[in-house]
C-alpha cells in the first residue's frame, strides 16, 4: 500500500461509472497523449445497447443538448445516436474537468509503486507532504497535450530524488 494520498475526483453524480472512467485514464495508460486517452475512454464508456442508452439519458440531458449545439451529434441520425453523443460529451467533460486529479494520481501511483517495492523501514523518514507538494508543483503546467510519458518522467524524477534523500524528514 502506497503512502502518497491520491486526490479525490470531482464527480458530476450523473452516472454510476464515473470513477471507473476516471481511474481508467489515471492508471491504465502509460504511453499516449493525455487527450487521446481521454477521447478513447470517453468513447469506450458510451452505452451501445438501447436499454442502457435510455436508462440514464435523463441524467445527462444537458450534455445531450451540448452535443447537439456543439455539432457532436448528428441530429439526422436518430435519438439513440444523439443520446450516445451526449454520453460522449458527458464523459469527455468529466475527464477534462479532472485533468489535474488524473495527472496527480498517475504520478502518485507510480511513486506508490516504488514505495511498495521497498521496505517499510525505508519509508519511515520520508516527508510525504513534501512529496505531495512536489507532485502538485510538477504537474501545474501539464495539460491534455502532454503525454503519459511526461507524467512518468515527473514520477521518475521524484523517485530519484527520494532515493537521494531529498525528501527525508
Walk me through the topology.
Layout lengths: L17 H10 L6 H11 L5 H7 L4 H9 L9 H19 L1 H18 L3 H4 L4 H12 L8 H16 L6
Architecture overview:
It is a single chain. The chain starts with 17 loop residues before the first helix and ends in a 6-residue tail after the last helix. Helix 6 packs across helix 9. It folds into two domains: 18-97, no CATH class; 99-163, no CATH class. The radius of gyration is 19 Å and the shape is elongated. It is mostly helical and 169 residues long. The model has no long low-confidence stretch (mean pLDDT 95). It has helices spanning 18-27, 34-44, 50-56, 61-69, 79-97, 99-116, 120-123, 128-139, 148-163. The chain contains nine helices and no strands.
End-to-end Cα distance, whole Å, is 20 Å
Question: Which sequence of SSEs, written as H and E, runs from N to C?
Answer: HHHHHHHHH
Taking pLDDT < 50 over at least 5 consecutive residues as the criterion, the unreliable ranges are: none
How many individual helices?
Answer: 9
Q: What portion of the residues fall into strands of 2 or more residues?
A: under 5%
What can be said about the biggest beta sheet?
none
Q: Count all strands and give the number.
A: 0
Using the CA coordinates, give the radius of gyration. Answer: 19 Å
Structural class: mainly alpha
Multimeric state of these chains? single chain
Helix % is: 55-70%
Overall mean pLDDT score? 95
Q: Estimate the global geometry from the Cα principal axes.
A: elongated
Instruction: Tell me the number of structural domains.
Output: 2
Amino acid at each position: 500500500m502506497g503512502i502518497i494520498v491520491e486526490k479525490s475526483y470531482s464527480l458530476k453524480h450523473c452516472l454510476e461509472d464515473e470513477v471507473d472512467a476516471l481511474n481508467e485514464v489515471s492508471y491504465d495508460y502509460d504511453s499516449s497523449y493525455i487527450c487521446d486517452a481521454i477521447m478513447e475512454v470517453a468513447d469506450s464508456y458510451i452505452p451501445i445497447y438501447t436499454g442502457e442508452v435510455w436508462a440514464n439519458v435523463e441524467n445527462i440531458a444537458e450534455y445531450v443538448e451540448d452535443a447537439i449545439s456543439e455539432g457532436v451529434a448528428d441530429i439526422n441520425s436518430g435519438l439513440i445516436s444523439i443520446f450516445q453523443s451526449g454520453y460522449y460529451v458527458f464523459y469527455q467533460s468529466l475527464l477534462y474537468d479532472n485533468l489535474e486529479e488524473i495527472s496527480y494520481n498517475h504520478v502518485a501511483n507510480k511513486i506508490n509503486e516504488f514505495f511498495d517495492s521497498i521496505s517499510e523501514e525505508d519509508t519511515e523518514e520520508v516527508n510525504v507532504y513534501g512529496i505531495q507538494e512536489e507532485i502538485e508543483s510538477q504537474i501545474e503546467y501539464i495539460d491534455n497535450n502532454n503525454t503519459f510519458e511526461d507524467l512518468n518522467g515527473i514520477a521518475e524524477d521524484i523517485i530519484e530524488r527520494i532515493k537521494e534523500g531529498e525528501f527525508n524528514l
